[in-house]
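Practice problem: predict the structure.
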Amino acid sequence: MTFSLSAYDRQTGAFGIALASSSIAVGNRCSWARAGVGVIATQHRTDIRCGPLGLDLLAQGFSAQETVSLLAQSSEHPDLRQFSAVDREGRTALFNGPKIESIATGHQGDACVSIGNFLADPRVTEAMVKGYEGSPDGTFAGRLLDALDAGVEAGGETQPAMAAALLIVDRHAWPLVDLRVDFELHPAQRLRGLWKAYEPIVDRFVTQVLDPAALKPLINSALQV
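Answer:
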């Protein structure tokens, strides 16, 4: 009950994923990324264990295709799983379990891959790739959100989406962006609103780790953390 797009930004070296679902807490269960390593999506009867495992495999030098194949081979129930991966070279891979009893598709583009299940239209994942690759937005986050919007516009899921998430890792061990919306109507719209609020201060949260003395007070004290 999830549709996602994972990508590698060749310009910055960042990895990211945007996704939505009718199932609560999708950002906690399905999206996994590690700086300098790659991004993993694990969906449909989600096996959360496959997120960290997939990242470890990518870190060991396995390609996206090798990683996805190993995840499927090591699963106790591969017929019901859905995986995707993007590695540090921008290679992509996906796996759709043959016993998923819904429209479950996947589509690959340039350093990006989309997968989805319980889709209202089989073209949703292709629309997400086109939305990402054709996005005029100058930011990686904006392009990921454009991909998510394209998936929604193409039909999304058979049930109303109630959760959405945006995860981006850059140069550090912690996520650059980790925004989540849960149990709300139109979560993709809400997620974009969160990003617009967060974008002006995203670099501030990096500075406070590396050089806290360099921080200057914000005009709105509520934004200080």
